[in-house]
Design brief:
By secondary structure, this protein is of the alpha/beta class. It contains 8 helices and 12 strands.
């Protein structure tokens, strides 16, 4: 399931710098992250010493030059359903579905209908119900995500964690996904119990983008609003949860300005209340250019879409 991560210090961090807690007290500001992006992301070299992959470098990062990476423009229509079975009848350009639980036949049927298929997995947490859960070393597993029993933050600098994630990307290629949605990539800004620093998170998120592109996979940045200035060039699109509710949509607008889609969701507890929420959200000017859905927390097939 998708995880809504509460980011309590974003506003203060953006204005004055937010300490990384038990991660050595290293502070970072938005100006510094933006400069880091301009300088090529030299906040901490990736384990293999490779440079971060830019969003316009398809074929130059180890991927098949003949395989175009999907890079959607603002306004691209989509459906997000992680619950099974998938309703394949929604007339949209892109489906976002669970990597592990979605049957191959469903992905093939979506492709046959002309849909792009993005496959969801959690890149920043260990979920105890996944088949590969026993591969995470105990020392790389941190605090439980608030409100999500059985799910814990993982150490993003760990070679073992990164190997698990590249195996998941390989599975996405095997299942013929067109791209991936790595979730929970803002552990640094949550109580993670592992001392994750902003610099470690930037390096990890760039690793995810680079390894996705090397496999010909499109990749989106999920939330992690404070690091958007530094990561904009690395990701092909963004997925945001509840920026209208938290008055944060302006933080995601750089993707729109760069000609990249923003897939945006606001949640309702009950379908019956969805239309009232949609009337409010769809009229909010701060989400201009976003591809906005109203969904329930369970991410079933039910949806309302802003025009």
């Amino acid at each position: 399931m998708s995880k809504l991560v509460w980011c309590g210090c974003l506003a203060a961090w953006a204005l004055a710098g937010c300490s990384a807690g038990d991660g050595g007290g290293q502070d970072a500001g938005l100006d510094g992250l933006a400069q880091d992006a301009a300088d090529g992301g030299e906040d901490g070299a990736a384990p293999d010493g490779e440079d971060a992959v830019g969003a316009d470098e398809a074929g130059g990062d180890g991927s098949d030059p003949g395989q175009a990476i999907w890079r959607p423009a603002p306004g691209t229509s989509w459906q997000w359903q992680l619950g099974q079975p998938i309703d394949t009848s929604v007339d949209v350009e892109m489906y976002d579905v669970d990597l592990f639980e979605t049957p191959q036949a469903t992905i093939d049927a979506l492709h046959a209908a002309g849909r792009i298929v993005i496959c969801y997995y959690s890149a920043g947490s260990r979920e105890d119900w996944r088949d590969d859960a026993d591969q995470f070393p105990p020392e790389d597993v941190g605090d439980e995500l608030d409100g999500w029993p059985g799910e814990n933050w993982v150490r993003v600098s760990s070679a073992a964690v990164r190997a698990i994630m590249t195996a998941r990307m390989d599975l996405a290629v095997e299942k013929r996904c067109d791209g991936v949605e790595p979730d929970n990539v803002d552990g640094w800004d949550n109580q993670n119990g592992l001392g994750i620093t902003p610099e470690q998170q930037l390096d990890y998120n760039r690793f995810l983008a680079r390894e996705s592109h090397a496999r010909g996979l499109s990749v989106g940045l999920k939330n992690d609003l404070a690091q958007i200035p530094a990561l904009l060039a690395d990701f092909d699109w963004a997925l945001n949860e509840e920026c209208v509710h938290y008055a944060e949509c302006g933080d995601v607008q750089p993707f729109i300005a760069a000609g990249k889609a923003v897939f945006h969701v606001e949640y309702t507890d009950q379908e019956a209340d969805g239309q009232a929420l949609a009337d409010q959200v769809c009229a909010d000017a701060s989400r201009a250019g976003f591809s906005t859905l109203i969904k329930t927390w369970e991410l079933t097939a039910w949806r309302l879409a802003c025009p």
